[in-house]
Design brief:
It contains four helices and 22 strands. By secondary structure, it is an alpha+beta fold. The strands form six sheets. Strands 4, 5, 6, 7, 8 and 9 form a six-stranded mixed beta sheet that branches. A hairpin with a 2-residue loop joins strand 7 and strand 8. Helix 1 crosses helix 4.
Length: 316
């Protein structure tokens, strides 16, 4: 028999098992509404400084947008808000301004300023909690705008600030609830709840999902290496359940593919450990993000993939 499936690349994905302790946990998650106000400058007549401040503001806003736990207002909406209310950055925490911001359903403000000392930028980034009127987090660094390492230093400061914002806010939902799931990951990753991405977590960071009613809920964590772990949680009574996601095991070794028939392949691999289930994904192009899972999760070490199209390249 002629071998008609002419090229196969292997990609077998392990599904590890997350550890669950306790038992409890929204039919709708509401992200934090956040505004990034324009960074102030020490000398408004310095066009270069003003331009750099605008760029840094945009960098902070763009980076925050990547995190689904935040609903970040657009620059156009911020400009309109400032113009309509005549906000001054120095008095944002006044009771009058806080009331105006609350009326816009804003939970947090990211603000900053740039001062100059000995030709170095002193950049400060701060987080204002609208509910309390208190600045709850801040980062500062001095850097030379003419140094080739300036962009790298700025990226590090922004990343440090956003990490701190995530830890201060702690993934709390914007409503009170006596039901919840607290998710912790030792390695970081993207968390999905009920099929929707809701947060990007750093290593050893926790995220609290508030729940409005007892029910069964599905969690998924996608790690940096592309592996995913799923967990089903059934909530039966009030309280908060802890769910821990660790890094799933590496893909199995000694993966082998045989072609017993013209339109099928037999995929087998070495057992990667006790209690591990596997999923075999396939695609007609080398793109893991669009691959489809074949069949149900497997506890064994082989499966037959059938009904493939002849004379076509497949990736597994």
């Amino acid at each position: 028999m002629t071998r008609l499936i002419n090229s196969i690349v292997l990609m077998v994905v392990c599904l590890g098992t997350g550890l669950v302790r306790g038992l409890y946990a929204q039919d709708a998650l509401k992200p934090f509404r956040m505004a990034v106000f324009p960074f102030e400058v020490a000398d408004p007549s310095d066009k270069t400084l003003v331009s750099d401040a605008r760029t840094i503001t945009n960098i902070v806003r763009t980076n925050l947008v990547q995190y689904p736990q935040y609903e970040v207002m657009t620059r156009q909406d911020i400009d309109k808000l400032i113009e309509e209310n005549q906000f001054q950055i120095s008095s944002l925490s006044s009771n009058e301004n806080l009331s105006k911001l609350k009326m816009k359903n804003i939970n947090y403000l990211a603000v900053g300023d740039i001062n100059i000392m000995r030709r170095r930028y002193i950049i400060t980034m701060s987080l204002l909690d609208i509910s309390t009127g208190q600045y709850v987090y801040s980062e500062r660094n001095a850097m030379d705008p003419d140094d080739p390492a300036f962009d790298t230093d700025l990226d590090q400061l922004t990343d440090l600030f956003i990490r701190g914002v995530g830890k201060v806010i702690g993934g709390k939902a914007t409503f009170d609830s006596e039901l919840g799931i607290r998710v912790t990951t030792g390695t970081g990753g993207t968390l999905s709840f009920q099929g929707k991405e809701i947060a990007k977590l750093f290593a050893d960071e926790s995220y609290l999902i508030s729940i409005r009613k007892p029910d069964a809920y599905l969690l998924k964590m996608r790690f940096g290496n592309g592996h995913e772990t799923t967990r089903s949680v059934t909530i039966t009574s009030r309280g908060v359940i802890d769910v821990q996601f660790g890094m799933p095991p590496a893909k199995p070794e000694y993966v082998r593919v045989d072609t017993p028939d013209a339109d099928s392949v037999q995929v087998s691999w070495k057992d990667a450990g006790v209690g591990i289930t596997y999923a075999v994904y396939y695609n007609t192009k080398d793109d893991p993000t669009t691959a489809q899972v074949y069949g149900n999760p497997l506890s064994g070490t082989s499966t037959k993939v059938e009904n493939l199209e002849v004379n076509k390249k497949y990736y597994f």
